[in-house]
Hints:
alpha+beta, single chain, elongated
Amino acid sequence: MSEFWLISAPGEKTCQQTWEKMNNSTAKTQNLSSNTKFHIPDLKVGTLDILVGLSDELGKLDSYVESVARKVAQYLGDVLEDQKDKLQENLLANGVDLATYIKRFQWDMAKYPIKQSLKNISEIIGKQVSQIDTDLKSKSQAYNNLKGNLQAMARKATGSLLTRSLGDLVKKEDFVNDSEYLQTLLVVVPKQCYDDWNEKYETLTDMVVPRSTKMIYEDHDHGLFTVTMFTRVVDEYKHHARENRFVVRDFQYNEEEMTAGKNELSKLASDKKKQFGPLVRWLKVNFSEAFTAWIHVKALRVFVESVLRYGLPVNFQAMLLQPLNKKVHRKLRDSLQQLFGHLDSSSFAVDDLPMDIPGLSGLNIGQGEYYPYVYYSINTDMLSDVVKR
């Protein structure tokens, strides 16, 4: 299961009692979830007005930081291409898998000093992740352009004879070169028209060199033939060839241009290979940065909502539950309701409220789910699209 429930409830006599009561009910007695304490440091509380305003801002920051982490993860999958099966092992947070990081969460004091106000910490996270988002856009655009150009050139080197490049199919001796009067054309002929071509190619116009045709390449549907004629009838020959379903390709034999094309393809492939390693490393590092920032935002939200709900002095226990599977969700909800239902002073504890309730945004109400305890969902499946928050 990649889904975690991050909840908090007020300390009874002690926060340890709250933890033991919840863990005994959900893990030891009923075996509904695997639980760990979620450690949140003593953050600066500030005023009630600030907390209420910050609650709304943190909701938006939560969505934004998660979206950036998912974009980085998904782009890493795109870049890995045929190694995409190794994506999960590359999606790490501080060097460990995502579930382990969340279960062992420790506040990063160096990045987010707790002496700072809650608003300042949220702004630090916002700026950090915004920079990752900006850098991702520029790096992905540059790499995608390179990859697109390489794919376009690769497509030209393969595919139908009607569209592909012909430079790698022909040889110098296939053409009459350095002639002031004669020119060799390359003509694409459907397979079912080979006999027709051999009968007609000499008579489509005057001044065609007899017995000058030769098939130099064949694919599933067409053959590529040469034919030589006087330069003065080339345009007329193209016109009559079209009438007979023979396609004259626009091609001039030029060794320098063909060599340059091959060199360009090699250069693009080399550039892509050079950029691949550094880009993958950047994506791995910055996925870790974005994901860990996201979990810090979750910790901030739990702290703010817990103070708004349970009051001062700060006295709550944050807890991380990992449901064993989706089938136990209802039982787990019921168990938590029995434990913490008494906290609901509003006389309604509804799973899915259909509307926003004015004035209660600071209590995590009107965001789709309300429970008598503080609750947020964390989904560590970074490739899924729809995630509850």
